[in-house]
Amino acid sequence: MHGDIAGGGLPVLRVLVIDDDEVDRLRLARLLRQVPGWRIVIDEAVDKATGRAALQAGSYDSVLLDFRLPDGDGMELLKEVEATKGECPPIILNTVLDDPAMGEALVAQGAQDYLVKGRFDSALLFRTIRHAIQRHALVRERVVLLAELEAAKSLAEKANAAKSLFLATMSHEIRTPMNGVIGMTEILLSSTLTAEQAHWARTIQTSGEALLAVINDVLDYSKIEGGSIEIEAAPFELRRCVEEALDLFAIKAHEKHLELAYEIEAGVPACLIGDFVRLRQILVNLVGNALKFTERGEVIVTLGSREVGAGRHEVRIAVKDTGIGIPPDRLDRLFKVFSQVDASTNRKFGGTGLGLAITKRFVELMGGRVWVESTLGQGSVFALTFMAEVRPGPAGAQAQPNPIDLFGRQFLVVVHNETVRRIIVDQAAAWGARARGVASGPEALGLLDAGEAFHVGILERHLPDMDGLQLAAAMRHRRAGAKLPLFLLAGPGETADPALFSGVLSKPVKPEQLFNRVAHTLARLGELPAPDVVAEPVRPVFDARFAHAHPLQILVADDSVVNQGVARLQLGKLGYAVTTALDGFEAIDACLARRPEVILMDVQMPGLDGLEASRRIRTRVGTARSPWIIALTAEAMAGDREKVLAAGMNDYLTKPLRAHELVAALACAHAALHPETLAAGMAGGEPLPPCP
After folding, report:
1. Mean pLDDT on 547-556
2. Is residue 598 within 8 Å of residue 555, measured between CB atoms?
3. Model pTM?
4. Cα 393 to the center of its chain, rounded Å
5. Degrees to nearest 5, angle at CA 128 with 126 and 129
6. DSSP string, 2-19
7. Sheet of 456-460: strands edge to edge?
8. Which residues, including other chains, have CB under 8 Å from residue 368's CB and lie 6 or more apart?
9. 569 closest CA partner among 160, 135, 184
10. How far is CA 604 from the centre of its chain?
11. What is the mean pLDDT of residues 343-365?
12. Using one digit for the tens of pLDDT, what is the confidence trace for 582-601?
C-alpha cells in the first residue's frame, strides 16, 4: 500500500480492475470509493492485452481480475505477466461461479483470493483486498527468506568444503613429519638399547601416538558435530592405559617438583573391553589440566570399580590435585566448548577450552558421567565413571604382578609425600611384605639405630634435612644398612651411584617395575629363589624372517626422502630390498622396467599423484601382471579409502606408517598374489596377520 499523498494526507490504495463488463467495472469502482479513510486510485482494463500493458507499465497494490475475458481467462494473464515481469501484485479473481473447489484451485495456481460477482459489499471487498495484500507480502517475505537461506546454505557448504580442504592439508603436513618420528622410533626400539634408552624411546613413541590421536579427533570433528563418534570395543589392560598417560607428564611433573602417582584399588579388573585410545585421551586431558593448574603438592589418579552384573563393571577414575581450585560460581563453565574459568586463565595457562568438553562427550558415550569437586585455593577432583565388560587377561595377567614369596619381607620406604608413601606401603602389603614408611632421613636412621631389620630400602631422592643420596651414605655406615639393597626413587633421567644403590625407580612409581627390580635383586643376593618375573611387555615389531616367508618385489613411491628412508629401513628390517621412486612418473617407469609385485604408493606427489599413477599403471600393465598397490596417505579423511580404491589401488595405509600395519598389509598382499601359500604363515609357525 502506498503512503500519504499531498491531497488530504490519506493513504493511497492503487487498484487495477480488469473486466470486459462495463457494469461490473462501475460497480467495483463505486464500492471501492465507499471505503472510508482511504484514497482509492482505480485504473481499468477491458481484456488481457490492455491488462497486460497496464501491469507492465504501472505499480499496483492489488488487481481485481475477471476470470473470463474476451481474449482468454484471467489465470493465463497472471502466468504471462509472471513470466515476463517476475511477479504480479496480489490477484483477486472476480467470477460468476460460486464453486469453492474451483476457487481453491485458482488460489493454488497463484491467485490470493476470489470473490463471486454480486455477492459482496464494500466492506467485504476492502477486507479481501487487505488480506490479499498481507498474504502476498508474507509470500514475498517467505521467498526472500528462502533465497537468503539458500544463499546461507551455499555459503555453509563452501565453508565446509574449505574446512575439509584445510583439515586434509593440515593432516598431510602434520602426518608427514610424524611418519619420520614414529617410524624411526619403531626402528630404534627394534635395535639393542639399554633399559633407560628403551624407556625414553617408548615414551617418544607413546607421545607420538597420543598426538596422532588428537590429530584424528580433529579430522573427525565433523563426526563430533554430527553426534556420530564411534567408541571401540576391544580388550585392553587398564594399568597400561593409565601408565602410558602418566608417562607423558613425568618430566613436566618433575620440573614443577610435583608428585605424580596412581593407585588401583583391590578388585579392579586388569583387562577390560572398551576404547583404549579414548580412555587414554581422557586421562591425558584430566592429568594435563591438573598439572597445569598445580604449582605445589601432588596430582594423584585413583581407580576403583564396582560390579553391576553380567560381567560388567562401572569403573571410577578420580584425578585429584592440590592446585588453585575453582570458584563455585565458575564451575558451570567447565565442560563447555571453548570455555575457560575466566579470560585470564587462557592468557596465563593457555589451552583452547575444548579438552573438558570432548572428555565429557567421550565419557557419556562410554555410558558414564563426569563431574568436578573443588575448593578454591586447595585443589580439585575431576571424577568420572564409565561402563565396561571384563575380559580375562592374557596368560593369567593380573591387576597386580603375580608375586613370588615376599611374605614377611621388610620394606623401608622413605618418601616425603604422604600419599606416594602410602601407595608404596600398600603395594608392598599386597605382595605379602611388611613395610615401614617414614617421611625423612633422620626417621629412617632412627629405625635402624633402634634395631629394626629390613630386606630392602626405597629412598626418595629429594627429602627434607638430608636427601636420598646422603641418607644412603649414612645407612652404609651402620651395621643394619651396610649391605641393605637400596633403590633410589627419582625423577626421569636421574641416576644413582651403583656403590650405594641397587637401581633407580623412576617416578611415577609403577608396581610392575617395583616388583621386578626388588624380586631380581633379592634373588641375586640369595634372599629369594630365582623369580618368574612378569617382564615388561615388549612387542616384537620387526622380524627379518618375514620376507623369507612372504617373498615380494617392492617399489616405494614417495616424494619425501625422509619417508622413503623410513619405509626402506622398515622393509629392510623385515628382510626386503626395495626400489624407490620420487613421483608418479618415476613409479610408472619403475613399474614397467622392474615389474614389482607390490607398490607402496604415496597419494600426494608433485607432477603426477599416486591416484593418477595407479590408473595409468592399471591401463598400461593390464590385469595379468598388475601389481598390488597399497596407498600411503597423510590425509586420513572420511572417504579417502573409497577414493583410492576407485583409482585402482588394492589397499590403504595412513601415515605415520606403523610396522604392525605394514606387516598386515604385506601379508594380505602376499596372500592375494600367491594364494597357494596362504596357509604357510610366517617362519616358526606363526599365523599370518589378518588382512585389513
Report:
1. 91
2. yes
3. 0.57
4. 28
5. 65
6. EEE-TTTTPEEEEEEEE-
7. 434-438, 410-414, 456-460, 486-490, 503-506
8. 314, 384, 385, 386, 387
9. 184
10. 24
11. 64
12. 999 999 999 988 899 999 99
